[in-house]
Amino acid sequence: MSKLGxxxxxxxxxxxxxxxxxxxxxxxxxxxLITITAIVGLAVRGLNMGIEFQGGAVFTTPKTSVSVSQAxxxxxxxxxxxxxxxxxxxxxxxxxxxxxxxNKADQxxxxxxxxxxxxxxxxxxxxxxxxxxEQIANKxxxxxxxxxxxxxxxxxxxxxxxxxxxxxVALIHDITIxxxxxxxxxxxVTPGTVIGLLTILGYSLYDTVVVFDSxxxxxxxxxxxxxxxxxxxxxxxxxxxxxxxINTTVVALLPVAxxxxxxxxxxxxxxxxxxxxxxxxxxxxxxxxxxxxxxPLVADLKEREPQIxxxxxxxxxxxxxxxxxxxxxxxxxxxxxxxxxxxxxxxxVVGPPRNQPAARNRGRGRPSGKRR
Length: 372
Description:
This protein is of the alpha+beta class. The chain is built from twelve helices and six strands. A hairpin with a 5-residue loop joins strand 3 and strand 4 (93-98). The protein is elongated and about 90 Å long. It starts with a helix and ends in a 49-residue tail after the last helix.
């Protein structure tokens, strides 16, 4: 653990780091491939919408000796529709049948009572009309659209429109992947799923804003220096907040993984899958997009500005000049290359480590500071 903490401190100080921005085409390609897979899965298999969205009925029975598989066959035979049966802790069954007319519920309950050997009056029926389910679905889409608009407005005011656009792309990326995995896995989409989606979007936005805030601070007065390009500063921002993103993501994923794999998998509490899968996939996708998508995309957009283009040319020219003075053209350059640059011109960044060889003329004409 101490080594991990030391690594985080070294990342923050800029002593070590990974060039995320330079390899952005790789990350873009991976994201496009995953997104296309999710879209294809969504188009081919579609979403398994719960009765809250398409209407139907839920029958809850008292304790019975009939197995889940037998009850599922009998429910499908009685209704003519697909049925989802779950065993309750009390020994009863929860039978969910989507797409049936509410007027047919009494007939289905009567047939279920005969097949399950249970008194009809003890079978509880909850009915959801298709019009109400459609209204819930429309409200969910409206809430998602309002959320997106407010996010863009806030980020455009707090930061700038380029960061707002990059954050929006990252959010759409996270939604598409999460929804696509729901289609591929076949989990039921319920209001809990919508709650999970909105929750992970907020978390993804938080992770992105942390990096953007660091980038905004480090890129202040960036055009007054010739040490780093905007992409260099963006990469420093990712590295300086990398351990924070990893730690918060891991801590958030652990309890969600418990809900998904233990609660929904081993214990058979299928209703936990509705929200836990969206949280698990969304948290992982949000952490990925904030590091590999949002910030590199901001760097791409900013590098198109005339001032940032001119800065990049000056930085590359300075590095080429430094290479002839004992440095290297990859940014590991000597301090002498910036001898003519004011100290306050450098941006507030933690730059990459630089070689500092002893120079013949360094300190000439200056007091040595040694005591006599």
